[in-house]
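step 4 of 6: structure.
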Amino acid sequence: MTPHPAHDTVAETVRIEGARILATLIRTVGDVQLAEDAVQEASLAALGAWPVTGVPPQPRAWLTVTARRKAIDILRRERARPDKERDGLMMMELSGSEIPPDEVVHDDLLRLIFTCCHPALSPATRIVLALRTLCGLTPAQIGGVLLTTEVATTKRLTRARQKIAAAHIPYRVPAEGELAGRLPAVCGVIHSLYTAGHAPVDGQAAYDVDACAEAIRLAELLHELLPEQTMPASVLALLLLTDARRPSRVDDQGDVVTLDKQDRSHWDTPAITRGIDLLNESLLRTHGQADAYQLQAAIAAEHARAPSYAETDWAEILRLYDLLISIAPSDAAALGRVVAAAEAADPATGLALLNDLPPSPRWHAVRAELLARENRFAEAAQEMTEALAGASTQPEQHHRERRRARFLHLATSPDDVA
Amino acid sequence: MPQYLALTYTADVDWWAPEQADELAEYRKFGVDHADTIKASAVLHPTSTATVVRVEGARGGEVITTDGPYAETKEALTGYYLIEADDLEAAVRIAAELPAAWSGAVEVRPVILAK
């Protein structure tokens, strides 16, 4: 069943506003689970009422007041032995109808972000918590985004909440001096979330959640909350620059379109401009000393500003990959560097560099393309067969199958080489 | 205030051996530096002195003892500190000063406190 579009807008407003008010409610009641339950009940009330009445003029105020009332209900229901002094203060705050001022919400959101992304939690748990509390997704939706089950997600959330409560992970914004040490964990969550959204898999569309959009929303939020910090700005730049090219990555049939064949007029120009501005500002702030996000953003910016594939500044991209690998070596960066080296020089250079890297499906696919560029089509087809033996997303799999068929054809009819 | 048990996991040493004296002195210093927060502590004899006890079936069943530690691991449980701290971050800061944190690892576990 497809949800009614109007209902969709209501659901979206409820979800985003709900996540925003959760942070303040957690601080007020001092209990993540209680606050989440209250927001959940308020959201259900909104989903029941708003499709009939329309979204009220101040949806946040409506949800805030309703969530507070729900919290009071839950407290009365569940507190067998109330702590009079503490509960008294809490009840006073919960009975108010004024919505908290922006600077209070600002601090509460930061508290929530740094608690969800606390280094004492595993990276996988941080992502699940962020999706639940910062994005307001249900365990079923999170399971869809992260390719796991609702049950596994619920278990992970329960364990995480138990640890936060039992081990007293503080609900606090790190001190100025600690911020630099704590930001990589937060930015890592946002970046991983974007990457997870980038791998479309069967069934995912049914969940109607765009992990890339959620990641960008979180990056925007973090940058808005900490405008003076470099890392949130560079992560946002990287995500915007990568996402600007997303619409042209697959065609109408859902098939992968490689960078050299993409219609660049479909790229999101405002996003590219903003990404480049953010990157430049962040580089000024770090006096040209770039971290891994800035370097990846710079590589994305080089692609984004090239008028065509042929006019790409491959020498500059190669230089950026060298810098990236010197501070944050990874297999993905090493393969990106191979492609840049092959384009800057020739396929043989790329093939020679591949020999020093560990094989993977993508390694085989890159090698297949480079062999084809040298008109070694039989070898290219063989290499693509190896790439297809490994795990990959379905569109990627189809793309590799098409390329292999093309290489096989060219291997037997060399006259067709254009 | 929350309490945490900081368990030290290091090489399975005999603390009585003369060559351990310098390291023990470091643990002593830790104990003095954090005397206010440490509620209890102990260093343990090596795992070769351990005995695992099990009772067959239920209470009153046959007592079965086996020689050696419950789990054979590269790093052994060699001691513990029961500490008080405001929250996990404070507990981690204290645990990070235990020599075991760099010679092995320190596991920090929140303690259930009877209300």
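step 5 of 6: annotate
 - Residues 21-33 of chain B form the longest helix (13 residues).
 - The mean pLDDT of chain B is 93.
step 6 of 6: archive
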